[in-house]
Amino acid sequence: MEPNNESNEPARQAQGEQKANNNEQTSSAPVQNDRPNGGRGRGGAPRGGQRGGSQRGGSSRGGQGRQSGERKTENGERSGVSRGQAIRAQKRSQMDAQRIANQFMPASTDEKRRPNFIDDSPRLKIIGLGGMDGGGSKNMMLVEYMNDAVIIDCGNDLSVDLPGINYGIADTAYLDQIKNKLRAYIITHGHLDHIGGLPHIVPKYPAPIYGSKFTIGRVEEIFENFGLPMPDGFELRTVTMNEDTHERLKVGEFFVELVRITHSIPGSTCVVLDTPVGRIINTGDFRFDPNPLDHERSDIERLKELGNEGVLALLSESTTVERMGRTPSESTIEQSFIDIMQQAPGRIFVGLFSTNMNRVQMIINAAIHHNRKIAMDGRSMVSTLEMAVRHGFMKVPKGTFVPIASAATMPDDQLVVVCTGSQGEPSSALQRMANGEHRHVKMKEQDTVILSSTPIPESGNDALVGVMVDGLVKKGVHVFEARNHDLDGVGPLHVSGHASRDEYAEMIEYTKPKFFIPIYGAYRVKQRHIDLAVETGIPRANTVNALNGEVIALTPDKMEVIGEVPSGTILVDQTGAIVSNVVVKDRVLLAEEGLVAVILTIDKKSGNLMTSPDIVSRGFIYMRDNEEIMNGLRNELRRAVQQRFKRVDLDRFKTELKDHMNHFLFEHTQRSPIIIPVVNVIGGGGPKGEPKTATVAAGGRTKTAEEVAAEQQKRFQQMRARLLTQDSRID
Ligand SMILES: [Zn+2]
Questions:
Q1: What is the distance between the alpha carbons of residues 506 and 297, in angstroms, rounded to a whole number?
Q2: What's the 312 CA to ligand 1 centre distance in angstroms?
Q3: CA 307–ligand 1 middle distance (angstroms)
Q4: 498 alpha carbon to ligand 1 midpoint, in Å?
Q5: How far is the CA of 730 from the centre of ligand 1 (A)?
Q6: What is the pLDDT of residue 716?
């Protein structure tokens, strides 16, 4: 499984951008109707909304006290809400935010920093540092024996749905302890959930990266496109292996071999590792396609041979074990493309996953068949195509491709546009063409769009695709969705890159392992995989459904879990930088509750306010519609300054101010926004205004808040541009 980056990230970004464009003092909506039912899901984005429902539905706060702002006693004293209630509500909000942020925790608690086992015995240890908790989830297996260790796969997790977070990578704290043993990274195939962690992890724990030619091409591609500079002295070392000749390379005490397997990206392989304890096989992602378009069939003969020689343990991916039967061959969809192109009156647009080069080849073939030229758009796809052509993986006759810039001048019936965006990603090439926002191509009546993928399950992308297709149909565009091919009277438009149940069983039957370890899948799906293995004759005692971090020890006749090493998720933002869990918690709080800043300018000598308190609200309430509350808050602030400023020190004063504001705002709105008091003390040569948030501009002049914001906005846009070069994830 490979998660789709382009599908979810830009959706969140678009939201963020919108917020950033809001002008002063605007916020989501007026108090009374902002959050009906007290629900805490993020409105707007279908994705956030969907997941938010389950994650954030647990808040015990309802909207029942919403009108409490009106409840005052005769002399104007507040009555409804005690200070304790306000504080408890604030704590609850913080705990909610913490819980959401903690779904993706680094292994940072001190006790867990060190593994709870010491083991130098001649046992083989297999540890899932990632990927044991769901498909598409930073797949990463560590194999360790005495003084040698290798890592198989090193992916990232693009399904992390937290504000400003692009993806997660595995917490590799354990590698600190065995750094000197690490001999190699061995990669099964070039999807991001198998290679996306490499640019973060390899520079920290250097070792050469082994893989097939296409996989190594992809590895080089992601290192080239990585946003951050590599540390000084770091050198990317790769070893390209031939997956057809059964060559075996010695890596420490191990021998490694790659075996060709079919999946949805070229160069996919099983990794065979011969160790002093016995042979293990990691299948990588696979299906057994009997008739792949590139004629590169799975090397079933070799798998059988290996099985006959003896396999100690099979580590088999588990993505779609719950799917019955067999996955249809990729070749079943080629005719569908030819048929649709036959009847399409005008231009044809095909949206698909960016690394699915076999599919691209299929479209090239169909286009040539119909004398159409191809234009391609979507940076990640173009990048992978270039790499694939350079390495000779594609058969592209000269003159087949035309630049996207000249697409508009081509006769309609001679053009096919291949692009990213089949998941409805808001910033994708397809979406921009559909919206008329694309520089060169705008969709019109009589165009045909083929969506050659299905929305990634549980991603929320089906809603995005729905919105996009609605827009297209309104324009009079013919849309072929993979799921509706029967309705449309055409053949299949997409098949999965993963096996179905019968094929998973065959993998076990071919390799005849003594022990069976399901990997790369959700716990429940791995359990199904174990049941399947038992059906094929593996004793249940010879299977284990391990969690991330659990240490599976193997001897020639025993498999057991002997302990645990630190495991967890490190969060990465759009620039490639690591983001602390604490920061994420604040972002969630901001997203849920908003922010209120008050700026007080106080004369040091007199202790009087020099101007009316400035109140800035973001994502909290719309101030213009709530003047009464804001005026009330200003009065509270004036009173607080009068009564307390001269009596306590500045830090204490600010703490009190925060508490007081929290109480006041909670009472009137039933919410606990993040509160930032800024107190400028002027005059008397005493403590200068603080805090020092302003930075210095080029001329020595202090930058204004607007300038700082403009710069941040610019950086954000650069990040976003860079993000679009990243790859998508594939079923
Ligand atoms: Zn894959």
A1: 15
A2: 24
A3: 24
A4: 8
A5: 7
A6: 56
Distance in Å, CA 59 to ligand 1 centroid:
37
Ligand 1 centre to CA of 206 (Å) is 24
CA neighbor of 323 nearest in space, from 505, 148, 452, 143: 505
Q: 568, 587, 589: which is closest to 96 by C-alpha?
A: 589
C-alpha 37 to ligand 1 mean position (Å): 41
What is the percent of the chain where pLDDT is above 70?
A: 80
Report the pLDDT value the prediction gives residue 670, as an integer from 0 to 100.
86
**Per-position b or e across 130-146, b if 16+ CB within 10 A of its CB:** bbbbbbbbbbbbbbbbb
User: Binning pLDDT at 50, 70 and 90, where does residue 502 land?
Assistant: very high
Cα 521 to ligand 1 centre (Å): 12
pLDDT digits (tens, 9 = 90+) for 65-74: 333 334 443 4
Task: Calculate how far, in angstroms, residue 81's C-alpha sits from the geometric centre of ligand 1.
Answer: 54
Burial 660-688 (b: 16+ CB within 10 A, else e): bbbbbbbbbbbbbbbbbbbbebeeeeeee
Q: pLDDT digit string (tens) for 173-208?
A: 999 989 899 999 999 999 999 999 999 999 999 999
> Read out DSSP for 488-522?
HT---S---SS--HHHHHHHHHHH-EEEEEEESS-
Q: Residue 78 has what DSSP assignment? A: B
CB within 8 Å of 447: residues ≥ 6 apart: 346, 347, 348, 349, 412, 477, 478
3 Cβ neighbours under 8 A, 6+ residues apart = 136, 157, 158, 159, 167, 192, 193, 456, 459, 729
Residue 45 banded pLDDT, cuts 50, 70, 90: very low
What pLDDT score was predicted for residue 450? 96
Helix (H) or strand (E) holding 686: none
Q: H/E/C letters for each residue in 294-337? A: CCCCCCHHHHHHHHHHCEEEEEEECCCCCCCCCCCCHHHHHHHH
CA of 261 to the centre of ligand 1 (A): 11
Strand order in the sheet with 373-377: 373-377, 415-419, 348-351, 448-451, 478-481
- Å from CA of 543 to ligand 1 middle: 24
Q: Tokens representing 465?
A: 């695709």
Written as one letter, the residue type at 462 is: D
- The alpha carbon of 263 and the centre of ligand 1 are apart by a number of angstroms equal to 7
Cα separation, 727 vs 356, whole angstroms: 11
CA 110 / ligand 1 centre spacing (Å): 34
Compute the distance from residue 2 Cα to the ligand 1 centre, in Å.
Answer: 5
Q: DSSP code of 625?
A: G
Q: Which of 272, 277, 278, 273 lies closest to 260, judged by CA?
A: 272
Task: Quote the ligand 1 centre to 289 CA distance (angstroms).
Answer: 14
Distance 299 CA to ligand 1 centre (A): 18
